């Protein structure tokens, strides 16, 4: 398995040899410090068990109401899907679509596809559709936001506590357990192990010769000479996972700028326009994100105010600023602290999804509080723009290629890459 002894770091692009990693240990990139491989004990069996448990919990969590809202003898109950349907009926289909995708479809599909990948592997089979499904599992991971949704539920419950009594439903417990099971399944999964079971077609098993040009797959991390890639029109595909091969993410800077500018344009109405309006005993009142935070502060709910301020105002702004800084620094070919800049990129990728909390709070309030003039909540236009900010900044972070940070420096030291490559190759048997 000569090709497996070399891996290109996904964050800085450096080609290196991953040493034997002890069980439970991990290997880090020598240049940028990114984690390149983790050796998870009994990965496939544990992930399969957790996936099956996750699917059972997913069905329970979606089949029963998760909260009931009681006010003056009247009660409304909410399941995940009725929350989405209420938003859709209220004319807020963009939010309904995002909530449907992130809280139901992405986690559900992720579990179902994972099952379809792991069951054949457990029987020592690799059907031809397996690589495509596993690529989808990896794509869906950042969009499954059940943990963020749970924080949204907690915020909504505290907000409503003075107004009415909130009764947790059976599925709330399944929901909470599912978050832990999903996280455990992701932690147990060793993608390198799955890819090592997928056969490589054609010439792909030949490792690049010393000094020979090579290209690495961003999905399964196979390193091959370009001649060994599968030709598909004018594109090259990976002979293992069939993903399109690129040296760097295509048009990374242009795409990231475009998405970022769109996000900045949406950020303004997201903060100026009301995100929801509350009707209570006939009188109606609208809230922007900021007045919502101030209301919580005035009523002594400062931990909640802090959560919403951080997730909805601070994090989106921080993401925008960091991404703009990274883009400008790459375009100026800066060699300032590449390791720290790569770390900043990791931060942006990790925190982005948490901004969704307020969107979920609005969804849950709309779904729970629907007693007409007595008490009801509607989502307003600001929430649509806010939702757009979160999605656009996540897409912007995904289209930015952190390897560009390092490319600018390598161009200053011609031959450096070849030297590193040669040195690691010389060390191989
Ligand atoms: Zn690296
Ligand atoms: Zn591949």
UniProtKB/TrEMBL annotation:
InterPro entries: PqiA-like, PqiA-like_proteobact, PqiA-PqiB_transport
Gene Ontology cellular component list: plasma membrane
Transmembrane segments: 48-69, 95-119, 140-160, 166-189, 257-281, 301-330, 351-369, 381-400
Keyword annotations of the record: Cell inner membrane, Cell membrane, Membrane, Transmembrane, Transmembrane helix
The keyword Membrane belongs to this UniProt entry's keyword annotation: yes
Topology of the protein relative to the lipid bilayer: Multi-pass membrane protein
Subcellular localization: Cell inner membrane
Xref: NCBIfam families: pqiA_fam
Family: Belongs to the PqiA family.
Protein name in the entry: Integral membrane protein, PqiA family
